[in-house]
Amino acid sequence: MPPSQKRARRYDPVRTRTAVLAQFSHVREAVRTLTPEQLALPTRLGDWTVRELAVHLTMALSGVTRNMELPEPAAAKPGLTLVQWPLATADRAAGIDEDTRALALDRPDLDALYGEVAARFEEVVPGAGDERLLTTRVGVMRLADHLVTRTVELVAHTDDLNEAAGLDIPYDRQALAACTRLLADALAEKAPGGSVEVRIPPFAVVQCVPGPKHTRGTPPNVVETDPLTWVRLATGRTQWARELDGAKVGASGERADLSALLPLMG
């Protein structure tokens, strides 16, 4: 079945909004504790410091409200489906870097920035319809779909912040689940097929890669990993070989090598 004909996974919009705000709140509480020395630490994201990463995290929400404040696009339907979003992000890096640095220079008080962003999101977003169309950086999307993409931004960058500053920011379960499922579905979109079963317990199982389709019994090609390792692989934070060697990924079968398909996001 072609990717465009697959039945799309459904996400509860209310639970997604709640998860986005919950994860943002976890990050805000951690950012409040950061010392000037921690804020100056390097990150694994190019030459961003922890402070620039913390500023960038606010854009996961402020981008939604900014797009909501623009006129609704004239398109009759979305130009970008949810599972296409991760695959369409590669060309955004330069613009995002420029916007992040400008915001970091303009807003020295991080807690005030986080408070304003959260308050504006809670004011604008809950009253909007799920089918409301937004013009995002990568195309026109439904509001409900765009909010699911925010879980990827928040979870991946929470992991970046934990790694850079030695923090232990928790992951909202619903945010981590939505992030994991979207990235798993994006893999199936990129490499449609049924020869490999990818398991990311407890949140997702997808089949992908062209070849003989598994129907019953033990699949001949299986990949299994945990949600955070999957997020890191899908977003380019780590390498397939490294996680395979470290036993964070299990792969069995001659087709169970996903290294050529990762990362999914640029």
Give an overview in words.
- With 266 residues, the protein is an alpha+beta fold.
- It has helices spanning 13-32, 36-39, 50-68, 93-106, 110-124, 143-165, 173-190, 227-234, 240-245; strands at 133-136, 139-142, 196-200, 204-208, 222-225, 249-252.
- Helices cover 48% and strands 10% of the residues.
- The strands form two sheets. The protein has a four-stranded mixed β-sheet. A two-stranded antiparallel ribbon has the order 1-2.
- The protein is built from nine helices and six strands.
Which key phrases capture this entry?
disordered N terminus, 6 strands, 266 residues, four-stranded mixed sheet, alpha+beta, 9 helices, single chain, two-stranded antiparallel sheet
Brief synopsis:
The chain has 9 helices and 6 strands.
Q: Helix proportion of residues, in percent?
A: 40-55%
Residue ranges: pLDDT <50 for 5 or more in a row?
Answer: 1-5
Summarize the biggest pleated sheet: 4 strands, mixed
Total strands: 6
What's the gyration radius in Å?
Answer: 19 Å
By secondary-structure content and strand pairing, the structural class works out as alpha+beta
Topology order in helix (H) and strand (E) letters: HHHHHEEHHEEEHHE
- Beta-strand percent range: 5-15%
* Strands side by side in the biggest sheet: 4-3-5-6
N- and C-termini, Cα separation: 27 Å
How would you classify the quaternary structure? single chain
